[in-house]
Amino acid sequence: MKEQMEAIQAEAIQKIEQVGELKELQDIKVAYLGKKGSLTGVLRGMGKLSKEERPVIGEIANKVRESITEAINLKSEKLERAALEKQLEKEAIDVTLPGRPVKVGGPHLLTKIVEEIEDLFIGMGFEVREGPEVETDYFNFEALNLPKGHPARDMQDTFYITNELLLRTHTSPVQARTMNEFDGGKPVKMICPGKVYRRDTDDATHSHQFTQIEGLYVDKNVRMSDLKGILDTFAKKMFGEEREIRLRPSFFPFTEPSVEMDISCKVCNGEGCSVCKGSGWIEILGAGMVHPNVLKMAGYDPEEYTGFAFGMGPERIAMLKYGVNDIRQFYTNDIRFLKQYHNA
User: Fold this and answer.
1) What is the pTM of this model?
2) Which pLDDT score, from 0 to 100, does residue 44 have?
3) Lowest mean pLDDT among 102-106, 191-195, 289-293
4) pLDDT bucket at 45, cuts 50 / 70 / 90
5) Is 130 annotated to bind ligand?
6) In Å, what is the CA distance from 182 to each residue of 131, 186, 187, 189, 222?
7) Rounded to an integer, what distance in angstroms lies between the CA atom of residue 265 and that of residue 283?
8) Pairing label, strands 127-128, 188-197
9) Extents of the domains making up the chain
10) Residue 229 φ/ψ region, left for φ over 0, alpha for ψ in the -120 to 50 degree band, beta for the rest
C-alpha cells in the first residue's frame, strides 16, 4: 500500500507540473484527492491492515495528501499570476496616445437669463419664491381681482383640468399665496420665476409653454417712483448702461394704475429700425401699482400698505439680448443652437 501511495504521489505531481489551465488543475485535484479519487480508493483498504500497520500507513497517506495539495496550490498561484499578467498586457493603455476631447455641457440660455435676473433682484433685496404649476382658480384669478365671469380672463386662454384646477397662466399666484401666508402682517419683497401655460398657437413669437418672472413689493409708502427706479436699474444692468426706459399707460386687472415698459432699441439707439419697427422703443414688460382689491383679499389694509408688481418673459429678454428670432429654438434642443451661447 505504501508503494501504491508513493506511485500516486509521483504521478499526481508530474501531471500538476504539466498542466496549463486552472480547470485542468481542478480536475486533477478531484481525480486524486476527491471522494472517488485514487488516493481515497487506496485508503479504503486500510481496514484490512493490522493495528501496527495502520498508524504507519496513515502517516504516509497524510504526507502524500499534503504533498499533492501543496503542489496544486503552488501551481494554482502560478497559473493565476500568469492569467493576470496576460490580462494586464491585453488591457494596457498607451499613455503616449493623444487624449479624446471631452464634450462639456453648460446651462441652457434661458437658465442663464433666469439666474442673471435672479441675481440682479436678489442684489436689490428681493427674495426668490416658487409655487405650484397646477394651480387653483382662486389663486390664479380670483385672488388677483379676476372673479368668475370677468372679461379679462379671456386675455389668458387657460388649460383647465377641472372647474377649479388649471395649469397656471402666470406666476402671479405665487405672489397671492405669499401675501396670504403673511396675512397682512409684514412687507413682501419677492420675485417668482417659473413655467406658465396658455392655449396658444406656437409660432416664432408664441408658445403654449413659456417662462415668466414676476416681482412684488408691498410695504408702507411704496410709490410709483420706486417701481420706475427698480425697472430702470434692471434695464441698465440687463441691456447696458446706455439703455433708457419709458412707461406707457396700460391695463391689468391686478394693478392700478398699470403701465407697460419699453426700452430704447439697442440696435438703432432709439433712431428707428426694423427691429423696433421704426419707433426707437421695444416693449419689454408690464407693471403697475398693486390693485387695492388684491391687497384686501390677501389681508393687507390698502390705506396703510401699497405696492407694485411687474412681470416679464425671460424668452423675450433672451431674444432681444442675444438676437434670437424664433422662440421655438429655446425648446427644440438643437445642440448647434445651444452651443452658440455656451459662453454668452
Assistant:
1) 0.68
2) 59
3) 102-106
4) low
5) no
6) 15, 6, 8, 12, 17
7) 10
8) parallel
9) 2-90, 111-339
10) alpha
3.40.190.150, 3.40.50.620, 1.10.10.60, 3.30.930.10: which CATH number matches 111-339? 3.30.930.10
Q: How far apart are CA 267 and CA 245, in angstroms?
A: 15
In the predicted structure, residue 202 carries a pLDDT above the cut 90: no
DSSP single-letter state for residue 22: H
Q: Is the N-terminal amide bond of 314 cis, ω within 30° of 0? A: no
What is the rounded CA–CA span in Å between residue 128 and residue 121? Answer: 9
For the record, the C-alpha cell of 203 comes out as: 409660432
Q: How many residues does the structure list for the chain?
A: 344
Beta-carbon count within 10 A of 235 CB = 20
Secondary structure element (H or E) that encloses residue 294, with its range: helix 292-297
Q: What is the Cα–Cα distance from 234 to 144, expressed in whole angstroms?
A: 25
CB 275 within 8 A of CB 263: no
**Cell digits of residue 48:** 484490512
d(CA 227, CA 215): 10
CA distance 27 to 229: 89
Give all strands (DSSP E) within the chain, no chain letters: 127-128, 134-136, 165-167, 188-197, 209-219, 245-252, 255-264, 281-290, 306-312
For the range 273-282, what are the long-range contacts, defined as Cβ-Cβ under 8 Å and sequence gap of 24 or more? 281/246, 282/320
Q: Which residue has the cell 427698480?
A: 230
- Condensed to tens digits (0 to 9), the pLDDT of residues 140-176 reads 999 999 888 887 777 778 899 998 999 999 999 999 9
